[in-house]
Amino acid sequence: MGCDVVTVSTDTQFVHLAWQRDEKELAQVKYPMGADPTGNLSRMFGVYDENTGLALRGTFIINPEGKLLNSEVNFYNMGRNIDEMMRKFKANVYLAKKTNEACPSKWKDEGDKTLVNPGAKMVGKVHEALNA
Amino acid sequence: MTETAAGLKLGQKVPDFSLTTYDPVKGDFGKFSLQDQIASKRWTILFFYPADFTFV
Question: Which of A12, A55, A102, B15 could form a disulfide with B48 if both were Cys (CB 3.0 to 4.6 A apart)?
Fold first, then answer.
């Protein structure tokens, strides 16, 4: 389940370099830091704020075929929860293998309860399916 | 008021894109492209944030 995280802001790669070297919180950072000074990629994903020239806090998961599977966008003043991002990523990888299952909200990792073949039989019976 | 474009729809194929990057592991600039990710069958998590030198 190879995955690459890329961070993106409208800063240039030069500023990314300066920030990563200056900020001790970033000393352990291993992922590439993408530069989108034109805002073109941020616009494509709908997170570019035309009034400020900045990108909102958007997280997007793209599968190995290039298909967009998740999007989450927070306003400027709210940070993201990395555990939730990892939960979504793991669920995507799991669901890519188990195409007849669905991961409910409490699903955290492989082995947790899933809904199998959600369909007509499960209508009104989700509680029973989750607690079977 | 925040003015943003519509963006992409879930389930759609993301149009190809590439980015110039700073790679802290190599300490050098590099390139990231969706086409390369598809060719090497890898997942991608794009993590946008407003600005360097602020919290993310």
Answer: A55
